[in-house]
Design a protein that fits this description.
Blueprint: E1 2-5, E2 12-15, E3 18-21, E4 24-27, E5 42-48, E6 52-59, E7 67-73, E8 75-82, E9 93-99, E10 105-108, E11 112-118, E12 123-129, E13 138-140, E14 160-161, H1 163-166
């Protein structure tokens, strides 16, 4: 498995080796030895229509979550935003395409908001987290927060966004 350090501190792209033969294929999705201090507590899955946007979500301290994200079916543009005001990378973001063809996985440490756009109907996204969901600490950032200055790769008017995500606040400093 190849592991690339991305532009944001401690955000990593995992590129597993796909083994194919006459029977089909095999791939190692997650090897915990490649992630220090990441203990899977819960695995989540969403299935989305094309142009669905989910995010930008995170859990507040002390219930923060690190995430390990992959796509089982379809494709997404995955967004990761540094939300640590003490970081020199505060409000910096990256966009990574994850799909069932490239089979890349993304590790998002604590201190980052996460969201994605589904690029195909019936896109299935899975992610493992290292702490349990707690609605009391559930939080997020409005997807059109101008202070983050996202250069959207698609027209945001085409996005299908939940009422909950449309009502998220802007990033507080």
């Amino acid at each position: 498995m190849d592991i690339l350090n991305l532009e944001l501190d401690n955000v990593k792209l995992f590129i597993p080796q796909l083994n194919k033969d006459y029977r089909g294929s095999f791939v190692e999705k997650l090897n915990i030895n490649n992630l220090s201090n990441f203990e899977v507590k819960q695995i989540n899955q969403s299935i989305s229509k094309k142009n669905v946007f989910r995010g930008f979500h995170f859990q507040q301290n002390p219930k923060e979550q690190a995430k390990y994200v992959w796509v089982e079916r379809g494709a997404i543009l995955d967004f990761v935003i540094n939300i640590n005001p003490k970081s020199s990378q505060f409000k910096k973001y990256i966009i990574v395409e994850l799909n069932d063809s490239n089979n890349h996985h993304l590790f998002i440490p604590k201190g980052f908001a996460h969201g994605f756009i589904s690029l195909q109907d019936n896109t299935k996204v899975c992610y493992a987290v290292d702490s349990f969901f707690d609605p009391e600490y559930d939080s997020g950032i409005h997807f059109l927060d101008e202070s983050i200055a996202i250069d959207w790769p698609i027209d945001t008017n085409c996005l299908i966004v939940s009422d909950k995500d449309r009502n998220l606040p802007k990033l507080a400093i």
